[in-house]
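Please decode residue identities from the backbone states below.
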């Protein structure tokens, strides 16, 4: 089974310290990432440039995808508050290895852009260009839903299971009903990245299995993508893999293959070979 990680970060510098629980290292290279992927049995990974602490990371990711085209692709970004960015989105996917766009929109000031009209141009432009867009939609589910409904041909991805970013265990799932309702929109998918973080229990994180099962049932195997965000995980890379491949009894066969990589690649148009 080919396994594709839906989210990793690489960086070459730290203008500011890596955010949150990410490893506090000055750099994490493509080669270091590949070594850990190989040890865990992961064939390929989708790089999300950590622009907030390494402004050069977008180009770094593209360089990695060019050097290792069968191992890496990119969900890039550009400054949303720069008027020149309206030009950048045209032909965005013509860059070798570039699959789509991703902004976390973690900061309150960034989330305000969703309400004051600053981002209104992004969604129709991405829809027109056929560019998938990922964001931390769990932080603003109502607004995310409105965008997805308004732009039915825009493929959107909710990052990190769409759960409460500041909660763990039961607290992580307080918006689960609202999240699962998004599954009725065919242009919305969920990245199940960083799932172990939502449990205070040790491996195999049994207290979040049922919640993940509900998300899987809502979106199905073609719109539910395994991934790690490995540089902030408290468990090993291999445990991130086996958590899904061995510990979830409801995830088997073709469904498992879709969740572990095929579904992601189909969603973003990454033409990796699957048996």
């Amino acid at each position: 089974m080919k396994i594709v990680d839906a989210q990793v970060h690489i960086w070459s510098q730290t203008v500011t310290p890596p955010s949150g629980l990410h490893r506090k290292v000055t750099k994490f290279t493509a080669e270091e990432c590949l070594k850990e992927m190989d040890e865990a049995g992961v064939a390929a990974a989708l790089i999300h440039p950590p622009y907030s602490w390494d402004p050069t990371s977008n180009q770094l990711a593209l360089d990695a995808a060019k050097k290792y085209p069968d191992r890496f692709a990119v969900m890039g970004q550009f400054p949303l508050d720069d008027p020149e960015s309206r030009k950048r989105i045209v032909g965005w996917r013509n860059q070798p290895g570039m699959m789509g766009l991703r902004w976390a929109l973690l900061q309150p000031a960034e989330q305000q852009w969703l309400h004051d009209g600053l981002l209104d141009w992004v969604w129709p432009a991405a829809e027109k260009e056929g560019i998938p867009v990922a964001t931390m939609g769990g932080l603003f589910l109502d607004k995310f839903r409105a965008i997805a409904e308004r732009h039915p041909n825009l493929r959107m991805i909710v990052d990190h299971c769409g759960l409460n970013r500041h909660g763990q265990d039961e607290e992580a799932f307080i918006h689960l009903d609202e999240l699962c309702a998004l599954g009725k929109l065919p242009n919305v998918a969920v990245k199940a990245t960083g799932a172990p973080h939502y449990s205070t229990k040790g491996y195999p994180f049994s207290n979040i299995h049922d919640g993940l099962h509900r998300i899987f049932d809502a979106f199905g195997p073609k719109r539910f993508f395994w991934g790690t965000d490995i540089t902030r995980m408290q468990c090993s890379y291999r445990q991130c893999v086996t958590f899904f491949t061995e510990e979830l009894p409801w995830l088997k066969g073709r469904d498992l293959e879709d969740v572990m990589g095929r579904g992601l690649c189909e969603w973003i148009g990454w033409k990796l070979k699957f048996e």
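Observation: The first helix runs from residue 30 to 40.
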